[in-house]
Amino acid sequence: MTDQAPADPAVADEALASQPVGYWAGLAHEVVTAHLRDAMARIDVTQPQYWVLNRVHGGPAAPARAEALAQLTPMAAGPDEIGRTVDQLLYRGWLRSDAEDRLYLTDDGEAARLRLRALVTELRAVVHEGVDDQEYAAALRVLRRMVANVRGARAAEAPWTAEPR
After folding, report:
1. Is the CA virtual torsion 144, 128, 117, 90 positive or negative?
2. What values do phi and psi take at 72, rounded to 5?
3. Nearest-5° angle of CA 106, CA 78, CA 84?
4. 56 vs 60: CA distance, rounded Å
5. Do 102 and 64 touch, CB atoms closer than 8 A?
6. pLDDT at 3 over 90
7. Helices in the chain by DSSP H: which ranges?
8. Which residue in 27, 106, 109, 116 has the most C-beta neighbors within 10 A?
9. How far apart are CA 131 and CA 81, in angstroms?
10. Backbone angles phi, psi at 57, to 5 degrees
């Protein structure tokens, strides 16, 4: 195993194994998310709005509001963000709800979802330029493994971090 060096955005390829994954994963999240959100802001849409439109569209049955909130809140900036987003989309006329509080896309909402899907596809092409599907999948497998490693280590540490009785 290679010793870890301080984060260095200009490090040569040969030294990448010494770089901290947290720095690079965080930087990738920051720049990709900003790229996406900046492009969406130019057309007065937010990333959470896109998430909600996709979730409402993407199931065999219309989701209840509570179900959509439960599924999307873990990705959100805070516990109330998705609820506010649903309210914005209802106000905008891109969603409607029924008596059981199930959410449905309106025609305008579906048109917006399709426009956003096209935009996200264009933005994804920029992010993936020079990265083939196999490389991308390999990178995600590595990150997924690292997440599992840390979660496993944290679970194993739990007895040691417990308060003394």
Report:
1. positive
2. -95, -25
3. 30
4. 10
5. yes
6. no
7. 21-41, 47-57, 65-72, 81-92, 107-127, 133-161
8. 109
9. 32
10. -75, -30
Instruction: Return the C-alpha torsion angle 33, 128, 15, 144, nearest 10.
Output: 70
Q: Token pair for residue 27?
A: 């930087």
Q: What is the number of other CB atoms lying within 10 angstroms of the CB of residue 116? A: 19
| Residues 105, 111: Cα–Cα separation, whole Å | 9
Q: Which residues contact 115 (CB under 8 A, 6 or more apart)?
A: 43
What predicted TM-score, i.e. pTM, was given to this entire model? 0.80
Tokens representing 55? 């979730």
**Which H/E stretch holds residue 104?**
strand 103-105
Task: Report pLDDT digits (tens) over 107-162.
Answer: 999 999 999 999 999 999 999 999 999 999 999 999 999 999 998 887 777 655 55
Residue pair 104/56 in contact (Cβ under 8 Å)? The answer is: yes
Whole-number Å distance between alpha carbons of 11 and 147: 24
| CA 88 from centroid of its chain's CA atoms | 20
